[in-house]
Design a protein that fits this description.
single chain, 323 residues, alpha/beta, Rossmann fold, N-(1-d-carboxylethyl)-l-norvaline Dehydrogenase, domain 2, 2 domains, eight-stranded mixed β-sheet, 8 strands, globular, binds nicotinamide-adenine-dinucleotide, binds SN-glycerol-3-phosphate, 6PGD_dom2, EC 1.1.1.94, lipid biosynthesis
Length: 323
């Protein structure tokens, strides 16, 4: 297998590390020249995954032309950069999209953006409960691999599976993408509850009611309920809503502690995708008539449109209704 991984943040580096573990020829494209140099010279990614010594067979490059001889490309950039990155990637090679988000301005899912940017390349989506630092350390992980082409999905799954890295195949691309995008926004909400000291009952309520929002929106966009209830939906929601290892949860925790969104988001190096997805998701939900009160609350906090106590109060005083 000659895999290319495009994007050397924490997740791209962890995936490249996993795929190269058996000595396989894996090439990792990095945006920052310093990251390319450090990986090739010191076998470490000092900016995004500093604690993990990288496999000797893993080579980094800053030149997209070095990806032209790969037989699959994993796209692992922040969602808002995916259009530009995919557009500059070599054509005709299967693309496995690993970014979680919805594009601002268009409201498109990552597969829809990739189809516009690179119409000649087959597309799959890889999404699920996967903290990068755990995957990079070889801890057991299961993930959804979604692709409309069942034969291609089986081929990719066989090539990326490792003893502790188990892809489960699905043909529900939209469902896998919606789970990954929406859970990031809901993780911000759970972080807010944690930061504000609202307790674990509140967290469980947010996860459950958030999942109801994810399901309503997903079904309206053509996702299947069993996908939303699987690894890429509920599985990732539970993971991301439960730990300060999540950048989205941590962002919410800061908001819940009373810090401003501007302070928390300015000059940050790592990506908290939920902050970008939240306003786009709110518009997308409104446009299909889906009620997403938790998502609306997160938007109000990110936009500093209302004080924290007022946002919490608005959720708690909604009319009582059947579950
Ligand atoms: N970290 C995880 O545990 C994890 C797990 C699953 C999925 N993801 C998803 O993977 C995607 C990438 O996240 P990450 O955690 O690897 O990123 P990260 O936060 O670790 O790193 C930021 C990334 O953004 C890139 N970047 C910054 N400016 C850029 C620009 N102008 N153009 C292109 N790239 C630029 C950096 O090179 C780096 O790769 C996100 O959509 C995230 O939701 C992350
Ligand atoms: O750190 P987060 O919040 O971006 O979450 C990372 C992964 O998406 C977890 O599956």
């Amino acid at each position: 297998m000659k895999a290319g991984v495009i994007g050397a943040g924490a997740w791209g580096t962890a995936l490249a590390q996993t795929l190269s573990a058996g000595g396989d020829d894996v090439r990792l494209w990095a945006f920052e020249p310093d990251v390319v140099d450090a990986i090739n010279r010191d076998r470490v990614n000092p900016l995004y995954l500093p604690e993990v010594p990288l496999n000797p067979s893993l080579r980094a490059s800053g030149d997209m032309a070095d990806m032209a001889d790969r037989d699959m490309l994993l796209i692992v950039c922040p969602a808002q950069h995916l259009r530009g990155i995919v557009g500059s990637a070599p054509a005709g090679i299967p693309l496995i999209l690993c970014s979680k988000g919805i594009e601002a301005g268009t409201g498109l899912l990552m597969s829809e953006v990739a189809e516009q940017a690179q119409s000649a390349s087959p597309i799959a989506v890889l999404s699920g409960p996967t903290f990068a630092h755990e995957v990079a350390r070889g801890l057991p992980t299961a993930i959804t691999l979604a692709c409309a082409d069942a034969e291609l999905a089986a081929r990719i799954a066989a090539r990326i599976a490792r003893p502790a890295f188990r892809p489960y195949i699905s043909d529900d691309v939209v469902g896998a993408e919606i789970g990954g995008a929406v859970k990031n926004v809901l993780a911000i909400a759970c972080g807010v509850a944690d930061g504000a000291g609202l307790g674990l009952n509140a967290r469980a309520a947010l996860i459950s009611r958030g999942f109801a929002e994810m399901t309503r929106f997903g079904l309206a966009r053509g996702a299947r309920a069993e996908t939303l209830g699987g690894l890429s939906g509920l599985g990732d929601l539970v993971l991301t809503c439960s730990s300060t290892n999540s950048r989205n949860f941590s962002l919410g925790k800061g908001l819940g502690e009373g810090r401003s969104a501007a302070e928390l988001l300015t000059n940050r190096r790592t990506v908290a995708e939920g902050a970008f997805t939240a306003p786009v998701l709110r518009e997308a939900a409104r446009s299909v008539g889906v009620d997403m009160p938790v998502v609306e609350a997160v938007c109000a906090l990110l936009e500093e449109a209302a004080p924290l106590v007022q946002v919490i109060d608005a959720l708690l005083t909604r009319p009582l209704r059947p579950e």
